[in-house]
Amino acid sequence: MIAFNDLCTELGITKFQLAKLRDERLAEGEYLTVEGRKFFTEEGAEKLRLAVAVPEAVPKRLQMRVIRRAPNPHWVYCLMDKDKPLVPVAVRPRDCDKLIGKPIFVDVITDKNGTTYRYEALGR
């Protein structure tokens, strides 16, 4: 486990920047708090190092709510915010009906062709 302050020093960024990266890029199991001290797992620290070196290599994470399934079982429609339109999110076909009405974490992948949304479980 790597301490929060040690990783700040190693990467040369502020605590605020590291906390923002942690919230945007890491899953719940990749960081933890023990007796008020914050730590990263080896896997989480490696993702943050990569995110600082090459920002496009580690996708951003957002929480969305699944509204309905799409005609294709590989996709569902999710709502980002109340005032934003529905966006298609790639999921496993066996999970498309189970996820309706539930909040999920989505990886946001942006490249030269546009933005794609992928259910977090697909990346594992």
Question: What do these coordinates show?
Answer:
The protein has 124 residues and is an alpha+beta fold. It has helices spanning 4-11, 15-25, 42-53, and strands at 2-3, 31-34, 37-40, 60-69, 75-79, 86-90, 103-111, 114-119. The chain folds into 2 domains: 2-57, Multidrug-efflux Transporter Regulator, Chain: A, Domain 2 (Orthogonal Bundle); 60-123, OB fold (Dihydrolipoamide Acetyltransferase, E2P) (Beta Barrel), CATH 2.40.50.140. Strand 7 and strand 8 form a beta hairpin. It starts with a strand and ends in a 5-residue tail after the last strand.
Give a brief outline of the structure:
The chain is of the alpha+beta class and 124 residues long. It has helices at residues 4-11, 15-25, 42-53; strands at 2-3, 31-34, 37-40, 60-69, 75-79, 86-90, 103-111, 114-119. 19% of the residues are buried.
Query: How would the global form be characterised?
Result: elongated
Oligomer: single chain
Helical residues, percent: 25-40%
Q: How many helices in DSSP terms?
A: 3
Distance between the termini: 21 Å
Mean pLDDT: 88
Order of helices and strands: EHHEEHEEEEE
CATH domain topology of the largest domain: OB fold (Dihydrolipoamide Acetyltransferase, E2P)
- Specify Rg, calculated over alpha carbons: 16 Å
Number of domain units: 2
Strand content: 35-45%
Arrangement of strands in the largest sheet: 6-5-4-7-8
Low-confidence stretches: none
Number of strands: 8
Derived from helix and strand composition plus strand pairing, the structural class reads alpha+beta
CATH C-level label of the largest domain:
Mainly Beta
Largest sheet: 5 strands, antiparallel
The assigned CATH architecture of the largest domain is: Beta Barrel
CATH superfamily of the largest domain: Nucleic acid-binding proteins
